[in-house]
Write a structure and sequence with these properties.
Layout (H helix, E strand, L loop, with lengths): L1 H18 L9 E10 L19 E10 L2 E5 L16 E3 L2 E3 L3 H7 L9 E3 L18 E4 L1 H7 L21 E3 L4 E3 L6 E5 L8 E7 L3 E5 L7 H6 L9 H18 L2 E3 L4 H6 L9
Parallel strand pairs: 3-6, 6-7, 7-8, 12-13
Antiparallel strand pairs: 1-2, 1-5, 2-3, 4-5, 9-10, 10-11, 11-12
Length: 279
């Protein structure tokens, strides 16, 4: 009997261990997480009155890139999971509102924040880094200028330092070149696009079925900005933004990539949300 029991127990233990592992991917996948909305109080810094925009509200999105060699979290939302009330209901921060925690959305597809290999943020502003502390165990891919402004004293008014404070002790790789090939095969590339912030960046993905995609960060906020060539008055460096936009537009033309404007609430509503994915 003991000879039979031991193999059964070993098999059960192995199955349990495997069930606790994050899912593996044989090819590149992209998950889109719902981070809620921003009810923009004043759109004039973007060059428009509210009535001149198709929708003055902005979407908030986070993305999980799953690659055979690991995972990359791109942006972490505006509202931290800790801001959701214990009894249920939406979480809020400033003028952001979200109905779904990022942790719950990750769990739905079999991941914990501690499973994530890499973290990259398009930039340091509060509405893109809300859940960054969850990913402190990941390797942080960041331009030095962004990290410096995030931990500067006094804090920038465009930050909520308590929501990314744990990254100060994270394993960090400083991005020093115009492009960083995350997994070494050209399928996931972080591209420098400074201007909106000192180290603002966009993410290029070479998806086999969907085709190439660029995630915008805040290169643009509204599609009308792109159409009418409006540059917000709140840019860190307006001239750099103009140059970065021209560089990315040339890259889009060269590669045939789609540009997903992360804050475009109309376009974002049409995207497949996790647990569905793009590949």
């Amino acid at each position: 009997m003991k000879r039979l029991v031991l193999p059964i127990l070993a098999a059960a233990t192995l199955a349990l261990a495997q069930s606790n592992q994050a899912p593996l991917a044989k090819s590149l996948r992209l998950y889109v997480f719902d981070g809620g909305t921003l009810d923009i109080p004043d759109t004039t810094p973007y060059g428009f009155k509210k009535e001149e925009l198709a929708n003055y509200k902005m979407s908030v999105a986070s993305f999980l890139v799953v690659h055979p060699k690991g995972t990359l979290m791109w942006d972490t939302g505006a509202v931290p999971d800790s801001s959701f009330p214990p009894g249920g209901g939406p979480g809020t921060l400033r003028y952001a509102k979200s109905t779904k925690t990022l942790t719950a959305q990750l769990a739905e597809i079999g991941y914990k924040p501690s499973d994530i290999t890499y973290l990259a943020l398009s930039h340091f502003h509060w509405d893109h880094v809300g859940n960054s502390n969850l990913f402190a165990s990941a390797t942080w891919l960041v331009p030095r200028s962004e990290r410096e402004i995030m931990f500067a004293q006094p804090p920038s008014p465009r930050t909520e330092p308590q929501n990314f404070s744990a990254l100060k002790n994270s394993k960090t790789i400083y991005l020093t070149k115009p492009e960083y090939d995350v997994f070494g095969d050209g399928s996931v590339i972080i591209k420098a696009a400074p201007g909106h912030s000192p180290g603002h960046q966009v993410l290029f993905l070479k998806l086999a079925k969907t085709g190439p995609v660029v995630l915008s960060g805040d290169l643009y906020h509204y599609p009308e900005e792109r159409k009418f060539h409006k540059v917000p008055t709140t840019e860190f460096n307006r001239d750099q933004t103009v140059t970065s936009r021209a560089d990315v537009e040339a890259f889009l033309k060269k590669t045939g990539a789609q540009l997903w404007i992360q804050h475009d609430i109309t376009a974002n509503a049409k995207l497949k949300k996790s647990p569905q994915f793009y590949e």
